[in-house]
Write a structure and sequence with these properties.
Shape: globular
Strand order of the largest sheet: 1-5-6-7-8-10-14-15
CATH superfamily: Glycosidases
Largest sheet: 8 strands, parallel, barrel
Bound molecules: 6-O-phosphono-beta-D-glucopyranose
CATH architecture: Alpha-Beta Barrel
Number of domains: 1
Distance between the termini: 12 Å
Number of strands: 17
Structural class: alpha/beta
Radius of gyration: 21 Å
CATH topology: TIM Barrel
CATH class: Alpha Beta
Helix content: 25-40%
């Protein structure tokens, strides 16, 4: 048998992309609550407000600018697709915010969990909306109604024997923390996050065993606001923010290990591995360096417990001095993670020079197009073999168990009159990726603990704000304008995945 007996088969979501009820139950505003849907934004793309080095590849891309107090802000993150997308500093009347209602999981969670159970899920990766627990982030006491909501969700999951895997911070910090402190750029956030984690650890210790600290911690490279609440376009502040996040993650790991020995804590990285464009040594060196700085820096620090030398040198060259305090070394050393979790969607290409090379269109991070790979309708390269490569790379580097907590195909689906959705394209995508996971386990001996496919039920897209970019096994009747009954319909992939789980991946 390739997949271990207790392999964690399941699906993944994030609170801000599916819960809705953005102000119910005492919840405060989060940074995700002020993200508009690009297609509906009344703001215009304002190229002059964007840094010149980014302007050249903005055509056909969706991106976020942030406006504070009416002023044009800097470009803080790219969004893909053809629509402009904006974060607003507060709720603006007449603006459309798709996350406010999302798919209303807040009121449909029983129905949704029943569908997950019907597919045979062993695990469900979800996040806690921090602003349900501490509406402003720095409140003295937690919000009981928010805590009680997740009690109900966990109880419902456990009723079906589904293991919750909980992300503590998935692009949804309380908005007030961003406004007041510039998010994680401020060291105060380390303690504020720690307090929030201590609260939920204590409350759910009997219900949740697997925790992830920060979703795609390395995505700060292209979106410091979404990732860490840093609204200024400032590389130094971004570096501070990720340093503080890693410190916070280490403190939380240490707390878990000391007080809750049954917990397993993981880091979560976005694992887009760069291939060298050619076999030229210079291209290979570039691939190595770009992987180090974009991905390995984060996992190296959280898995090994210290800042890697290549990053220290990189910061020195850029004249950035991290705000390191004396006690930090011990914090990082003691707070290493138990396992590594990854999102995997695509791979990239690195070359010593990209002059004259064809660029990939639509990917979140600007990179060279790979002529050997097809792309999704949103321009993301599709590379199943890259997943096996990534799993091998990570296992060789760290020898820690790996959980794949995001992977999937965003695609347009058609709901037929008889309420069926024939998503053969999604089935082939997942089939091909899972076959590579199987090989990584069976042939290469990689320790993979679980696979939770992204957006197991349709939800709001993070990068485009669209509902029409669908990942789910379950179709949700809602469109990009917020119309629809919110009724749920299993797609063909629902039954396919059910069979894969039932047979523990034997037929892949
Ligand atoms: C990951 C995020 O980057 O990709 C998710 O953790 C996101 O929140 C997912 O939804 C897919 O991206 P998108 O933009 O298609 O929703």
């Amino acid at each position: 048998m390739a997949f271990p007996e207790h392999f964690l088969w399941g699906g993944a979501t994030a609170a801000n992309q599916l819960e809705g009820a953005y102000l119910e139950g005492g919840k405060g505003l989060s940074i995700a609550d002020v993200m508009t849907c690009g297609g509906k934004s009344r703001f215009k793309v304002d190229l002059p407000a964007i840094k010149p080095e980014y302007q050249k590849f903005l055509s056909k891309m969706r991106y976020v600018t942030f406006e504070k107090d009416g002023q044009d802000g800097a470009c803080i993150a790219f969004k893909q697709n053809t629509y402009p997308d904006h974060g607003t500093p507060k709720i603006v009347e007449g603006e459309y915010y798709p996350n406010h209602e999302a798919i209303d999981f807040y009121h449909h969670y029983k129905e949704d969990i029943a569908l997950m159970a019907e597919m045979g899920f062993k695990a469900y990766r979800m996040s806690i909306a921090w602003s349900r627990i501490y509406p402003n982030g720095d409140d003295d006491a937690p919000n009981e109604e928010g805590l009680a909501f997740y009690d109900r969700v966990f109880d419902e999951l456990l009723k079906y024997g589904i293991e919750p895997i909980v992300t503590l911070s998935h692009y949804e910090m309380p908005l007030a923390l961003s406004m007041k402190y510039q998010g994680f750029a401020n060291r105060k956030l380390v303690d504020i996050f720690y307090k929030y984690c201590a609260t939920v650890f204590e409350r759910y210790a009997g219900k949740v065993k697997y925790w992830l600290t920060f979703n795609e911690i390395n995505s700060i490279i292209h979106s410091s606001y979404v990732n860490a609440g840093v609204f200024a376009n400032d590389r130094q502040l971004s570096e501070y923010a990720s340093y503080h996040q890693m410190l916070a993650s280490a403190k939380v790991c240490q707390l878990a290990h000391e007080k809750y020995p049954h917990f397993k804590i993981g880091c979560m990285i976005s694992s887009s591995i760069p291939y060298a464009y050619t076999c030229k040594p210079e291209d290979n060196l570039e691939a190595l360096k770009s992987y180090d700085l974009r991905v390995n820096y984060y996992s190296d620090t959280m898995v090994r417990g210290y800042l890697p030398e290549y990053k220290i040198k990189d910061l020195e060259r850029r004249g950035i001095k991290l705000p390191i305090m004396e006690e930090d070394r011990a914090i990082l050393e003691k707070g290493t993670v138990d396992f590594i979790s990854i999102s995997y969607y695509q791979t990239s290409i690195a070359a010593a020079s990209d002059d004259g090379l064809k660029m990939a269109e639509g990917n979140m991070i600007r990179h060279i197009a790979n002529p050997h790979l097809k792309t999704s309708e949103w321009g993301w390269s599709i590379d199943p073999v890259g997943l096996r490569y990534t799993l091998n790379y990570l296992y060789d580097r760290y020898h820690k168990p790996i959980m794949i907590v995001e992977n999937g195909l965003g695609a347009f689906d058609t709901l037929n009159e008889d309420k069926t959705v024939h998503d053969a394209y999604r089935i082939s995508y997942l089939q091909e990726h899972l076959s590579e996971v199987k090989k990584a386990i069976e042939i290469d001996g990689v320790d993979v603990m679980g696979y939770t496919s992204w957006g197991c039920i349709d939800l709001v897209s993070c990068s485009s704000g669209q509902m029409s970019k669908r990942y789910g096994f379950v179709y949700v009747d809602r469109d990009d304008d917020g119309n629809g009954t919110l009724a749920r319909y299993p797609k063909d992939s629902f039954y396919w995945y059910q069979h894969i789980i039932e047979t523990n991946g034997e037929e892949l």
